[in-house]
Design goal:
The structure holds two protein chains of two kinds.
Chain A: E1 3-14, E2 22-33, E3 37-41, H1 48-54, E4 63-68, E5 71-72, H2 79-85, E6 86-89, H3 102-112, H4 117-130, H5 146-158, E7 164-168, H6 176-193, E8 196-201, H7 204-207, E9 212-217, E10 220-225, H8 227-231, H9 234-239, H10 246-256, H11 268-279
Parallel strand pairs in A: 3-8, 3-9, 6-7, 7-8
Antiparallel strand pairs in A: 1-2, 1-4, 4-5, 9-10
Helix pairs in contact in A: 3-4, 3-5, 4-5, 5-6
Chain B: H1 16-19, H2 22-38, H3 42-59, H4 63-70, H5 74-87, E1 92-96, E2 99-102, H6 103-129, H7 132-143, H8 153-183, H9 193-224, H10 243-264
Antiparallel strand pairs in B: 1-2
Classes of the chains: A alpha/beta, B mainly alpha.
């Protein structure tokens, strides 16, 4: 069993008042490998959040199948197993924190799973240390900054020791510093603890950190590959309502002006090197 | 401005009262309140007042904080006092037009005012020394036997702790909406009662809409963290009675019983 999550021809339509359904996902087939870091990109309404909700059985596909570690998300009896395997972090930290003390909130999932008290204490401390919020364990969540709240939310999920974490635009409501805190934490979880990460975002710079980028448009997978491969397709990305990282943007503009430059520079250093090499 | 609400606030500390099991404190407060209503005589009031002052000293809460907590009920206390003063039948000491003050009236007024103030101080002391989460925990535990009668004990406790959790969030939001409305010329401070009430409507509508949206998102987030009701749930913090809890309980029950017996003998 090497695939963390398998989506097979997944279609989903939101029920509407008239009963006529609009397809939000239109036939998605995707494998997410164990231990990988996948970024899912797409503009608003591309279906990326709907996709996220399929990964741990919040939504069940109207057609097709989602398998989490081999478990079908349509199987009600396995729902708890699926949810402890795939944890989910949402956009607004305020609306996912349940308790009014940090450590109580981190303990919430474990309490639901019926873990003994001493084990809860151990795992809560471990999770809080991992996200660097241990000193704040007795604080009230509403007094924390956005980035800190989001890290508490992440701790609440990793306390379950999931194999995979899905983050649905976790940085959309944060300031740049909060965003860095969250991305650094997520990156570390993936590298050091081998947790599979699915990061839903519309920030190109965040996607550039991932090992694989999936671009969605109109409920379909438009592109799928490494950040370098995907970001070279500047015009297609623009057509899908997405921008490219600033570095690629610059190189692309220069190339359009007739300069012979590669497009696969993602960091500022690489970009500077590329231009430097051309000038010499 | 909405943040100055002190009623029901918790002041973290490490006093004996803080360390008592929340269940002990809850039971003792209930006993205190019941006893307060059986008290008829100066002696009973004296004992209960001494008990309360003793508890306040033990809690390490500054008297100023308690007075501030009592402030919102001053008007109620004054009105109750005046009503008791004038409407208690007895031998008039002093009369004017249709009003007359009786010795019984003075007595009743003083006792009633004292009773209300002590009652509120007692409950304030409970909330000042017990974190809301522990308090809801204690209620859940104490009400557990009611599960047999199909009272949804766990659900009630969960609702209460979520409500407590969202009070600051929604207050923040109210402040923001108010500022936004003010920036567009809304006026919340002038006009009569009706006009002010009507001015609140454009505040309440967006607040409610947002509260429902939050509730929806929270429900999904809770499901994602495997919430499936109270069945098979364990807790991070397990409540355990310590020796001090038994001692405090014995002391509180003995005192309550003593004062009640005094009341029965008309003292």
């Amino acid at each position: 069993m090497d695939e963390m999550i398998r989506l097979q021809g997944v279609k989903y339509a939101y029920p509407t008042a008239e009963g006529v359904a609009l397809p939000a996902l239109d036939g998605i087939t995707l494998d997410i490998h164990r231990g990988s870091f996948v970024a899912v990109l797409g503009h608003n309404g591309s279906g990326k959040s709907t996709l996220a909700k399929h990964l741990n059985g919040i939504l069940i596909p109207t057609e097709g199948k989602v398998l989490v570690s081999g478990m079908d998300t349509a199987d009600e009896d396995r729902l708890l197993d699926i949810r402890r395997t795939v944890g989910m972090v949402f956009q607004n930290p305020d609306n996912q924190i349940v308790a009014n003390v940090v450590e109580e909130d981190v303990a919430f999932a474990l309490e639901n799973l019926g873990v003994p008290s001493e084990e809860i204490r151990r795992r809560v401390d471990e999770a809080l240390k991992l996200v660097g919020m241990y000193e704040f364990r007795t604080h009230a969540p509403h007094l924390l900054s956005g980035g800190q709240k989001q890290r508490v939310a992440i701790a609440g999920v990793i306390a379950m020791r999931p194999d995979c974490i899905v983050l649905d635009e976790p940085t959309a409501m944060l300031d740049p510093r909060g965003r860095d805190e969250v991305l650094e934490t997520v990156g570390r979880l993936n590298r050091e603890y081998g947790v599979t990460v699915v990061l839903i975002t519309h920030h190109m710079e965040e996607a550039a950190e991932a090992g694989r980028v999936v671009v969605m448009s109109d409920g379909r997978v438009l592109m799928d590959g490494s950040p370098r491969q995907v970001f070279q397709r500047v015009e297609e990305l623009r057509k899908a309502g997405l921008s490219v990282p600033e570095t690629v943007e610059l190189l692309w503009e220069l190339k359009e002006c007739g300069m012979n430059l590669p497009l696969d520079a993602l960091t500022v250093e690489e970009c500077a090197q590329a231009i430097y090499a051309l000038l010499h | 401005m909405l943040k100055d609400i002190t009623f029901g606030q918790y002041f973290p500390g490490d006093s004996l009262l803080h360390r008592l099991d929340p269940r002990t404190k809850l039971i003792l407060t209930l006993i205190f309140i019941v006893t307060l209503f059986t008290a008829r005589h100066v002696l009973s009031y004296g004992i209960l007042l001494a008990y309360l002052v003793f508890a306040v000293i033990l809690s390490g809460i500054r008297p100023g904080v308690i007075f501030r907590g009592l402030k919102p009920i001053v008007v109620v206390v004054i009105i109750t006092g005046i009503l008791n003063l004038f409407y208690t039948p007895g031998i008039p000491l002093w009369s004017f037009w249709i009003f007359s003050i009786t010795a019984e009236g003075i007595r009743a007024a003083v006792f009633m005012v004292l009773r209300i103030l002590m009652l509120i101080t007692g409950t304030l002391l409970l909330t000042y020394t017990t974190s809301p989460i522990l308090l809801t925990d204690a209620m859940e535990r104490l009400m557990k036997p009611l599960k047999v009668l199909r009272v949804p004990v766990h659900e009630l406790a969960m609702m209460m702790s979520i409500a407590l959790r969202f009070i600051p969030t929604l207050l923040d939001e109210t402040d923001k909406i108010m500022s936004a409305q003010k920036a567009r010329g809304a006026d919340f401070e002038s006009g009569g009662l009706m006009q002010r009430a009507r001015a609140l409507l454009p505040l309440l509508v967006p607040l409610f809409v947002s509260a429902f949206r939050r509730a929806d998102e929270l429900a999904v987030a809770m499901e994602c963290r495997c919430y499936h009701g109270g069945e098979g749930r364990t807790r991070l913090r397990v409540l355990r009675f310590a020796l001090r809890d038994y001692l405090a309980m014995i002391f509180g029950i003995a005192l309550g019983a003593g004062v009640t017996v005094l009341g029965v003998f008309g003292m």
